[in-house]
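Researcher: I'd like a candidate sequence for this fold, 373 residues long. If you have to choose between options at a position, lean toward the conservative one.
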């Protein structure tokens, strides 16, 4: 091996010895309780056929051929952005290739030197990475802790930005958005909200948590991801027309990235149209969540979640892997979340519920959990 490989292999060996090595796998067990396909749209044959039909109508174009500022723009993507702006009740929307890219763009480009970013301690890695790329000061506040947030708002300098998620990806709980909005108003701060895990599953037409609760007009910047509840790919930022114009001019993940293909853009439109025609899927998911909570509500170490994301905390990586293995033996595909993905002491089973999980599967899962935890 060359010197660089020696160095990298040493790091990999350390992680292997600690039982923390990550590996790609194509293995799938019979019953899916781990993917983010909450509404079953990623596996929907009807949606697939609709997207393929639209793609044929678009003509032959395999890729966008460049960034949006070069050859990658189109009438289609601008029309879909207008549709998304109406759906999310914002002045405008801007499509990105992924939620990660959108979060990186907003946090790295909008806050300036001398400003302060205050992010929830359980915010997604993409939000934290974006904050690191910003020239602003950055501090975390205790998860959903309004007192800690207010204390840090008092001592912050420059323009203040509060960063939160509507539904948190590891605990499945929601943020106190109304109260965060009130604090933002009191301290002249702007709110950046990641709606990744509420997109599709909540709100009229899948418009997310903030629209469902009538708080969207209190949020300066919202980021919606389409690779989870919508079952496709891409993301968008929703906000004012000035914000969108600013991102087009200053957000490096937008400026220097090849645009989505027309096929992918058409898929976004098709997915939201499909959901509008099958909005009962939101209620179906709610019923599945209620069924799970009925069977697992008294389990110890269960995080307080009423979303499709349910978690059970375990004491260490070995314990959570052992519990996952027991469920795997019964055919349940539930993945252990180990440190360092979560902080040490926060290891857990992450259970994702879907509209396609049968009542029998959910009842069998909760029975297995009650006999194992």
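Model: Candidate sequence:
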């Amino acid at each position: 091996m060359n010197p660089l490989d020696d160095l990298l292999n040493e790091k990999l060996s350390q992680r292997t010895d600690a039982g923390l090595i990550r590996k790609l796998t194509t293995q799938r067990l019979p019953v899916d309780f781990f993917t983010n396909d909450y509404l079953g749209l990623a596996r929907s044959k009807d949606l697939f056929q609709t997207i393929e039909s639209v793609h044929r109508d678009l003509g032959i174009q395999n890729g966008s051929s460049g960034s949006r500022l070069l050859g990658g723009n189109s009438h289609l993507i601008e029309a879909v952005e207008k549709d998304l702006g109406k759906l999310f009740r914002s002045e405008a929307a801007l499509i990105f290739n992924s939620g990660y890219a959108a979060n990186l763009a907003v946090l790295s480009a909008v806050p300036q030197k001398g400003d302060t970013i205050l992010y929830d301690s359980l915010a997604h890695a993409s939000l934290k990475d974006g904050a690191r790329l910003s020239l602003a000061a950055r501090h975390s506040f205790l998860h959903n802790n309004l007192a800690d947030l207010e204390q840090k708002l008092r001592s912050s300098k420059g323009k203040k930005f509060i960063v939160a998620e509507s539904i948190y990806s590891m605990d499945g709980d929601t943020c106190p958005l109304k109260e965060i909005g009130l604090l933002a108003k009191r301290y002249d701060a702007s709110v950046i909200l990641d709606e990744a895990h509420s997109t599709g599953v909540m709100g009229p037409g899948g418009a997310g948590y903030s629209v469902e609760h009538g708080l969207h007009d209190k949020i300066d910047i919202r980021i919606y991801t389409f690779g989870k509840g919508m079952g496709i790919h891409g993301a968008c930022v929703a906000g004012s027309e000035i914000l969108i114009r600013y991102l087009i001019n200053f957000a490096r993940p937008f400026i220097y990235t090849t645009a989505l293909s027309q096929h992918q853009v058409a898929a976004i439109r098709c997915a939201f149209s499909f959901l509008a025609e099958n909005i009962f899927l939101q209620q179906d998911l709610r019923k599945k969540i209620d069924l799970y909570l009925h069977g697992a509500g008294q389990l110890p170490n269960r995080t307080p979640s009423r979303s499709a994301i349910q978690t059970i905390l375990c004491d260490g990586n070995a314990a959570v892997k052992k519990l996952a293995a027991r469920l795997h033996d019964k055919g349940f595909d539930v993945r252990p979340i180990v440190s360092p993905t979560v902080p040490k002491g926060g290891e857990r089973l992450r259970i994702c519920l879907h509209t396609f999980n049968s009542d029998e599967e959910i009842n069998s899962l909760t029975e297995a959990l009650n006999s194992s935890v």
